[in-house]
């Protein structure tokens, strides 16, 4: 009797596992059948249901929610649901839902992950949809943003919003030190000279820092570009001779020196961590300059810090570079209603949506006409927008190998910053590790 | 077919729990066992699971970070398990005294265990803050310049171990109940025989609470090897991987780089390690654990 019931339990368990699988698959075939039917009958009587997701935007009055409502009103045959996810859990939620085949039809991806998701084959290329639809042209967008969304000559992402990196400075600290604000002619060395004047010490302890030489990769990439080097080759297949080239080593030695010794002008990453992060240091007049994205503006405006933005200084020979941080809409390659999803993407990236989002000044519009308008009225945003012209693609937007590069590079930087290794040794080792991992 | 009705009723009663075990514990465990022999990048969906035999395990044994995380976890377990057990017993002995206001002390020592680990971690981040933290302020009164506890690779692991002392309330409570189960007459008899306080502790208390020690030791070992939350919240493995606990590395593989097969293999290795250590303790228990009323002690 006992054995018999144990056997029964086992059968029960397996039948449940099986039924769970089969119900999933039968569900999806049914849906697929329905969608082909839709196309045949011109989708008159059946409402197609779509989902889209972003990180953040959790409040009931969020712009995306309103955009979804407006879309539903103008498209009676489509019902779209907006499902926002808190920022921390976004990647996990998205990837697990992609794995389970339950992912939303349209989802938002940050520029650092553009390449990765395309490489995994989960993002649908948009070229055919664009060709078939003459009412929608991508030339309404900033060319840089469209260019970013292109991978291997196919367009995968339509712009939602973007944040070019720029130099942000604390006016009060500049006034106090009686030095002029950053200008367009500034070189990196000019900036460091100013940073030295802005740094204030109490004994051996620095109380106010002139500049934040962060461990965040983007400003480091920009600095490397200004010095004519990069952590990897163009298509991200080689680190030897790039990550550890003489130019990279020399540039990073200079960069790291900003956080070290008696003459330091920058907090170390540990300092920044203990003091609550660079933007809160900036807001409390403990940091005079930082290179970061425009998203910081929201927080700065809430505080009473007086700030300005400027172009990121040039290299010694006048070269200039920046990175655009951006978020783009992607279509789920395994979605069931792709044509409708494309309609939704057009709406979410289109002029109306860009206007709605930029109205409160929270983000810059991705469309040319609207951006020009902002440019003519906004003082603080002018340099930020101008930095777009110098945007380059960091390694994460050039190669699927990027995580290998960044992991090893960050590890090397950590060793260097904690004085556990010289710049040269750490980068040599990192380059070797990257290349051996790529070969696998 | 005796008792078949009541037997069936019994099975019905355990069915909800049993189903939960099957669906949420045994099922996923089986799945992860299969995964540990496969390569699966979770983004590409369930169809892309690819059987790779022992490749994951081979790769793990060449993985520098695997050894680093093992090292961190072993150091933590080796230091923290005895440390927490000894501290708990000593505190439990104090709390077992009959003095006025003892209930208040018991409350104070148990209270930290009620606070969620994440909240505790946030609080300790502030305590450990080298600039504003209360710990370095206090050290400053004695002219000591405290280190950057969580940001210095030579201090971070130690800081986490010290922090753990704060949360031993659960263990204390179990020891306390063990101590209260020691019959008073044994102490009296020992005293009549001329045993001093130390002798009474080693010859009466320790043997009598040895089942409690046994239980706490096993739970402590399992907890030590599975240490995760505090490291995840406070250091995220840094600086320089000095607090990269095994479970944290496993989590990163599974939910940051989405290498589910690799992560599953890691988790089964951890399972084996915990199993071995628990078995060692269980096997050795016959030598030092004394059960009251068990005459066939060998």
TrEMBL record, chain A:
Q: Which keywords, in A-to-Z order, does the entry hold?
A: Signal, Transport
Q: Which residues form the signal peptide?
A: 1-20
- Give the matching CDD domains: PBP2_TMBP_like (cd13585)
Pfam families, alphabetically?
A: SBP_bac_1
Q: Does the keyword Transport apply?
A: yes
List the Gene3D superfamilies hit by this protein, alphabetically.
Periplasmic binding protein-like II
Query: Which family does the UniProt entry place this protein in?
Result: Belongs to the bacterial solute-binding protein 1 family.
Which protein, by its recorded name, is this? Sugar ABC transporter substrate-binding protein
Which species is this record about? Paenibacillus chibensis
Taxonomic lineage of the native organism: Bacteria, Bacillati, Bacillota, Bacilli, Bacillales
């Amino acid at each position: 009797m006992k054995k018999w019931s144990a056997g029964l339990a086992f059968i029960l368990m397996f039948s449940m596992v099986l039924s769970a699988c089969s119900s999933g698959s039968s569900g999806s075939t049914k849906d697929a059948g329905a969608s082909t039917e839709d196309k045949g009958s011109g989708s008159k009587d059946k409402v197609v249901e779509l989902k889209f997701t972003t990180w953040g935007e959790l409040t009931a009055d969020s712009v995306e929610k309103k955009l979804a409502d407006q879309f539903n009103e103008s498209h009676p045959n489509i019902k779209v649901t907006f499902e926002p996810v808190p920022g921390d859990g976004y990647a996990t939620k998205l990837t697990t839902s992609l794995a389970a085949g339950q992912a939303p039809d349209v989802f938002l991806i940050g520029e650092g992950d553009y390449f990765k998701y395309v490489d995994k084959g989960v993002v649908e290329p948009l070229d055919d949809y664009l060709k078939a639809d003459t009412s929608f042209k991508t030339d309404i967008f900033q060319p840089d943003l469209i260019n970013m969304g292109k991978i291997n000559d196919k367009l995968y992402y339509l712009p939602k919003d973007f944040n070019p990196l720029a130099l942000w400075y604390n006016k009060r600290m500049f006034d106090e030190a009686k030095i002029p604000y950053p200008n367009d002619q500034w070189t990196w060395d000019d900036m460091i000279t100013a940073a030295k004047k802005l740094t204030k010490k109490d004994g051996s302890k620095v109380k106010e820092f002139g500049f934040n030489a962060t461990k965040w990769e983007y400003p480091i990439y920009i600095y490397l570009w200004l010095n004519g080097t990069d952590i990897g080759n163009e298509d991200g297949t080689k680190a030897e001779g790039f990550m550890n080239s003489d130019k990279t080593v020399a540039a990073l030695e200079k960069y790291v020196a900003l956080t070290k010794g008696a003459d330091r002008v920058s907090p170390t990453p540990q300092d920044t961590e203990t003091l609550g992060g660079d933007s809160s240091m900036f807001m409390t007049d403990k940091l005079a300059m930082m290179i970061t994205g425009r998203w910081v503006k929201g927080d700065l405006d809430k505080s009473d810090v007086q700030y300005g933005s400027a172009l990121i200084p040039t290299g010694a020979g006048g070269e200039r570079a920046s990175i655009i941080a951006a978020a783009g809409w992607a279509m789920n390659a395994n979605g069931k209603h792709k044509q409708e999803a494309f309609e939704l993407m057009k709406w979410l990236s289109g002029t109306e949506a860009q206007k709605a989002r930029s109205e409160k000044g929270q983000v810059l519009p991705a469309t040319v006409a609207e951006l020009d308008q902002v440019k003519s009225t906004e003082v603080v945003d002018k340099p930020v927008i101008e930095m777009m012209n110098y945007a380059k693609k960091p390694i994460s937007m050039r190669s699927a190998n990027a995580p290998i590069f960044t992991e090893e590079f960050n590890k090397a930087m950590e060793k260097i910053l904690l004085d556990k290794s010289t710049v040269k040794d750490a980068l040599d080792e990192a380059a070797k590790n990257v290349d051996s991992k790529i070969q696998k | 077919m005796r008792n078949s009705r009541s037997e069936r009723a019994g099975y019905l009663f355990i069915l909800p729990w049993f189903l939960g075990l099957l669906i949420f514990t045994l099922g996923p465990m089986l799945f992860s066992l299969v995964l540990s022999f496969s390569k699966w990048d979770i983004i590409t969906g369930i169809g892309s699971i690819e059987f790779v035999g022992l490749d994951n395990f081979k790769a793990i044994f060449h993985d520098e970070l695997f050894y680093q995380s093992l090292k961190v976890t072993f150091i933590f377990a080796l230091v923290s398990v005895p440390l927490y057990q000894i501290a708990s017993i000593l505190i439990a002995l104090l709390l077992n005294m009959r003095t006025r206001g003892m209930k208040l002390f018991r409350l104070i020592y148990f209270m930290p265990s009620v606070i969620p680990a994440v909240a505790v971690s946030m609080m300790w981040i502030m305590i450990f803050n080298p600039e504003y933290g209360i710990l370095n302020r206090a050290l400053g009164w004695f002219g000591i310049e405290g280190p950057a506890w969580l940001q210095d690779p030579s201090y971070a692991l130690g800081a986490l171990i010290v922090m753990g002392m704060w949360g031993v309330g659960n263990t204390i409570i179990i020891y306390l109940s063990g101590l209260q189960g020691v019959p008073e007459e044994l102490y009296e008899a020992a005293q009549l025989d001329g045993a001093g306080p130390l002798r009474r502790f080693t010859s009466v208390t320790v043997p009598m609470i040895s089942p409690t020690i046994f239980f706490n030791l096993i739970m402590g070992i399992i907890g030590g090897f599975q240490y995760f939350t505090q490291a995840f919240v406070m250091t995220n493995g840094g600086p320089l991987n000095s607090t990269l606990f095994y479970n944290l590395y496993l989590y990163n593989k599974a939910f940051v780089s989405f290498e589910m097969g690799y992560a599953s293999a890691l988790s089964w290795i951890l399972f084996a390690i915990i199993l071995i250590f628990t078995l060692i303790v269980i096997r050795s228990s016959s030598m030092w654990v004394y059960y009251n009323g068990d005459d066939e002690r060998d």
